[in-house]
Amino acid sequence: MIVGTVVCPHPxxxxxxxxxxxxxAAELRKACTEALGALTALTPDVVVVVGGHDAPGEHAGGAVxxxxxxxxxxxxxxxxALPLSLGVARRLLDGxxxxxxxxxxxxxxxxxxxxxxxxxxRIAGRSGRVGLLVMGDGGARRGLRAPGYxxxxxxxxxxxxxxxxxAGDWTGLLGLDPGPAEELMVAGxxxxxxxxxxxAFSGTLVxxxxxxxxxxxxxxxFVATWLRGTG
Length: 231
What we know:
Elements: E1 2-8, H1 26-40, E2 46-53, E3 57-59, H2 84-95, E4 102-108, H3 113-124, E5 130-135, H4 153-167, H5 170-174, H6 178-183, H7 189-202, E6 206-214, E7 221-228
Parallel strand pairs: 1-5, 2-4, 2-5
Antiparallel strand pairs: 1-7, 3-4, 6-7
Protein name: Extradiol ring-cleavage dioxygenase class III enzyme subunit B domain-containing protein
């Protein structure tokens, strides 16, 4: 049973070592911590993390990849480093004070509808109280200094994601078109669709709340909670 779902983004700047003296991601990190606090207050038996990566897989442990983005600390071999999405998730969970069991899964950036559906079904079919943490960014083409430069289509595409997260509308997430998502560098598309399928298969009502939606660096970031509802 999925007792709650949280959406957080995974920019490297959420790794505090990379922000220098001025924490430019403080507001975003605070929203993530608040969302995770609401999830962990539901006392899940396990938190399942889903994030994008080059390939699907399960990840047990591993180093947070700070050195790979110019930070200091332990230099971990590539095969021991967590993918960025999972590394940021691990750091956010630690920051929120969660010390319970965690399972980490990746979904390929270009995962098909069948692949995201299968992943969502597996999560929904688990026994016990499951907290789901979904790591995903919106479009990265929202400004002249954005990683993908400016593409006006990004605003409409991201608005669709925002509305779906704010309304608890899993059908909106399942309707995200992989083609435009790839063109607009929407790194969370596949993870969002795993989430949509998981919630759909679980068959439970959710109480949605959107805590953050902004593009401070030309990339759209969302923080949202879908906690188990009643009625």
